[in-house]
Amino acid sequence: MEHSHRLIDRAQSCLVVIDVQQYFLDKLPLDQRGPLVERIAWLMQVARGLDIPIIATAEDIERDGPLVPSLIAELPDSSKVFDKMTFGLFGQGDIRAAVEASGRRDFVLVGLETDVCIAHSAIGLHEAGYRVTVIDDATASPPPHHDHGLRRMAAAGVMITSVKGVYYEWVRGLKTNAVIRAKLPQALPPGLTL
Prior knowledge:
Layout: E1 13-18, H1 22-25, H2 30-49, E2 54-59, H3 61-64, H4 69-72, E3 81-84, H5 93-102, E4 106-112, H6 114-127, E5 131-140, H7 145-155, E6 159-161, H8 163-171, H9 174-183
Parallel strand pairs: 1-2, 1-4, 2-3, 4-5, 5-6
Helix pairs in contact: 6-7
């Protein structure tokens, strides 16, 4: 499959929030947990402000717990959190149906863990013909596994960018930037500069 390097099209985008559960966050260094969740929440706010749909999953909710409350609060009212029982989300029928029903072709992935559920999901979506972008600073795995996952996905043809990068690809110009920034909190998440 040929890899396209064109900019991410917000009219074709869907944000996918994968398995941001306390169980997985607790595996990360303490100083990474809060900032990661804040960057993901901020991207969810941006997506909502730009009418970009959001799909959210949590792995084996009964065993590993729900999506963290601060991210549940950022979901549009009509959203559900899919109880994901496969590492790659496209391998589960109800999630695959939600991907297809979105009508979108550009999938932007954030969450946990980079080398397993993010990688399996990204590669599965890519193999199914979707354009997939993974956000480096809005995904994580315990070191050194984050970097392994990013390299694996890049080798498979998945695009890797940053929160800042996807933000500017979504807004594309000064007018949209001004409109969306007015809808967002003034303070940016820790470690993010625009």
